[in-house]
Amino acid sequence: PLYDGGSKIVGYIVERKPYHVTGDGRWLKCNYTIVSENFFTVTALGEGEEYEFRVLAKNSAGVISKGSETTGPVTCKDEYSPPKAELDAKLQGDVVTVRAGSDLVLEASIGGKPEPKVFWSKGEKELDLCEKISLQYTSKHAVAIIKFCDRSDTGKYTLTVKNASGTKQVSVLVKVLDSPGPCAGKITISRVTEEKCTLAWKPPHEEGGAEITHYIV
C-alpha cells in the first residue's frame, strides 16, 4: 500500500467470495497465516465456479487495512495448450543407425496442458516396460531405452503425446547394424582341374543391415 499507517507492513491477508453481480456474499480468508510475499496461490477452488478476490495489508502494530479493489469475476478452469513433442537432436535425420549389442536411446521433449498421455510405440505396438525395455516419462521428457539391440529392433519408433487439445506424433527410423549371416545353401564346385576349381555360392539371407559389398574365401 502507499500508506503503511505509521508502522512497517508485515504481511497480507487474501480473501475470496463467490462472485455475484449484486455483490452479495461473505468474504472468506484464503490464508491462515500472514503472507509476507506479494503473491499467493489459492487452492481448494471449485472447477467452473466464479470467484472474486481482494487483499488486505497488516502492519507491525496489528492494524489491518481496508480491502483492496476486487479482482472482478475469475472463472476457475484448466489452462489448455496443444501437446508438444520434439525428438532429441541426435535422433533427427533420415535413419538412425545403432550397432548390435549396444543400447538404443529414444529421447524427446514433451509438453501440453492438461498433462498429456505419453507413450512410445514400434509400428502399431506400444512399448511395454520389461527387462529389455526401460521407459521414463515426466512432464517434460519421454525416454525409451532398448537394451542390447539386435536386428529385430530395426524399425519405425513413434512417440505419441495426447491430451484434450489434440494429438502430436514424432517418429524415427532405426536400423540396427550387425554381422551378415552365412551364405545361403551349399557351396557348389565346378571346373575342377589339377590346379584350380571354381566355387559358387548364394548371398546370405541376413545382410546385417547394410549391403553386402564383397566376400572372403
Automatic annotation (TrEMBL):
PROSITE patterns: FN3, IG_LIKE. It comes from the Eukaryota. This is Fibronectin type-III domain-containing protein. It comes from Micrurus corallinus (Brazilian coral snake). The keyword Transmembrane helix does not apply. Keywords: Immunoglobulin domain. One of its GO terms (biological process) is sarcomere organization. The keyword Nucleus does not apply. GO terms for molecular function: structural constituent of muscle. Coiled coil: none annotated. Transmembrane segments: none annotated. It holds the Pfam family I-set. InterPro entries: FN3_dom (IPR003961), FN3_sf (IPR036116), Ig-like_dom (IPR007110), Ig-like_dom_sf (IPR036179), Ig-like_fold (IPR013783), Ig_I-set (IPR013098). Residues 1-79, 183-217 form the Fibronectin type-III domain. Residues 83-171 form the Ig-like domain. One of its GO terms (cellular component) is M band.
